[in-house]
Amino acid sequence: MRQKIVAGNWKMHKSLEESQALITEIRGLVRDEYRGDGKVVIVPTFLALPSAARLVEGTEIEIGAQNAHYEDQGAFTGEISVSMLKAVGVTNVIIGHSERRQYFGENNALLAAKAKSVVRHGLKVIFCVGETLEQRESKQYFRVIEEQISQGLFGLDRKEFANVVIAYEPVWAIGTGLTATPEQAQEIHAYIRKIVSAQYNDEIANETSILYGGSVKPENATSIFMQPDIDGGLIGGAALKARDFIDIVKAMR
Ligand code: 13P
After folding, report:
1. Of these residues, 62, 106, 131, 169, which one is catalytic?
2. pTM here?
3. 62-65/164-168 β-pairing
4. Per-residue pLDDT for the chain (253 aa), expressed as one digit of tens each?
5. How far apart are CA 174 and CA 192, in angstroms?
């Protein structure tokens, strides 16, 4: 179902104790200040997931993980499977973040296997795509995004694709303070919806939530979220401050 979503990706920030304190604070602010029907997802480190899931029990807030392995179990030192995440109450998994692609060498084939595992277990995959500055400047961004989406997601059947959320995060806008203009983001979001429609159909494309990520702040969230094909945001730095995060949540209409 196409839904407004704001997800906070905490990356490698906050100890267990700090995570619990921040989730408790965000939980209170969402309860007291957010009246809309968008979805709020908090994505802390693996260590914080079990207690995060307990802290949001009985609320509308959902918990996500930042990564997962594609097998359920096995000799994969250092990895965590989707079934393990599901068992502690995780309902969303980010796959294909540009930091995973860039620093950990994750390619489209690996990401396709991971995305498949997430949706096979009935969890939502938040699948990230986006071009580098060089790719934008050399006008290759449509091709790059088409490749990331077709190779990463189009192995899913229609039913599986219902569990897909796509996040467009231009690499040059992540953590840089540079934001894509609402028009630049809208152009890509409309393109993503077009290629999803060509692969599946119009109905599926219209039902897919497509989020924008990259230096979203309380000051720019409203103008970005107002665009017709932008269904919310994937927030990094500003998700680590409860006040900023709730103000971005409230920009969902
Ligand atoms: P920033 O909001 O810090 O730019 O990070 C965006 C991001 O990478 C979210 O996944």
Report:
1. 169
2. 0.97
3. unpaired
4. 899 999 999 999 999 999 999 999 999 999 999 999 999 999 999 999 999 999 999 999 999 999 999 999 999 999 999 999 999 999 999 999 999 999 999 999 999 999 999 999 999 999 999 999 999 999 999 999 999 999 999 999 999 999 999 999 999 999 888 888 999 999 999 999 999 999 999 999 999 999 999 999 999 999 999 999 999 999 999 999 999 999 999 999 7
5. 19
Centre of ligand 1 to C-alpha 174, Å, is 5
- Cβ–ligand 1 contact at 152 (below 6 Å): no
Q: 126 CB less than 6 Å from ligand 1?
A: no
* Strands 39-43 vs 124-129: parallel, antiparallel or unpaired: unpaired
- Read off the tokens for 16: 């267990």
Structure tokens at 3: 């839904």
Q: Is 25 one of the catalytic residues?
A: no
How far apart CA 179 and CA 202 sit, in angstroms, is 29
Task: Say whether 207 is catalytic.
Answer: no
